[in-house]
Amino acid sequence: MTRVTLRDVAARAGVSTAAISQALNGRGNLSAETRERIKTVAAELGYAPNKHASALRSGRTMSIGFVMAANSLQDGRRALQRARQLDALVQAGAERGFTVTVLPDSRPDLLVGAQIDALYFPDPADDRTILRDAVAAGIPVAANDLTVPGSMLTIRTGYAAAVRAGLAHLAEGGAERIGFLVDESEVPRDQLGESAYLAWSAVNGRTPLVARVDAGRRRLVPALHELLDADADAVFAYCEEGPEIYLHLEEIETVMPRDLQLLVLCTIDCEMNARLGITHLCLHPEKAPEVMFAALDAGQTPRSIELPFELVRGTTTR
Q1: Three-class SS of residue 88?
Q2: For the segment 186-214, what is each residue's pLDDT rounded down to a tens digit?
Q3: Which residues on neighbouring strands pair with residue 209, listed in sequence order?
């Protein structure tokens, strides 16, 4: 299919290409009638601006760099998290005509030849040398849960803030010994959550009760009983995507005590939790690329943005 050009529109409308550009970009001193006629002709011909040509004129490459750690695929949960982060960036970029260039964190030298408008650093556990080199080269940088001197944006993913809000909610419900279920993983979100839990416990004079669950969930029930044996009267299920904890317990015919409060964190099953009427914390890590593109469009003013989360009230017992 032949691409419709400005010249095609100009020939049909009987005006210059400059007039076409002015009409479609809201510039110039064209009459309202001429402007509308040009827009109508452009729509009839199916004209679409060439974003990449415009980007070249403005000095943009229309590509975003994505940092991938060399060992990020060895941990199943970390690999899944990285896949979701990359998918969210690809989808957000595609809507704006951007491509994604994947760069290994171990090869900062590739920045020299990488034609990118910004670098997205999704995991604070990765090697940060590439970040420092990008800042030194004048490349705008957006990093998750990491403040980098000279960077464009720090994106707070909301996990720590959500943990604090969930713990406060359980405490308001009368819980005095809140247990914390977390995965046996080096995924930064797990470290953020556990750190926030330990800090909240210390500030509020609570004894921390942490139990770890393996990736295959074989230790889910022993971990839960570990907390119950420690007299936990509430459990924050940070390790599960919402209703999964109920499904796993029902599958092995394990019934939780009715006087035990349960709060779950989720990023992909929020609608399921709402239908089940479960009190849950719904996070939106997939919105990180959106705020990065907004910051890129607004300029390179260093700032920090916290991603949203919601505490959806339902029942904390089952």
Answers
A1: helix
A2: 777 888 899 999 999 999 999 999 999 88
A3: 179
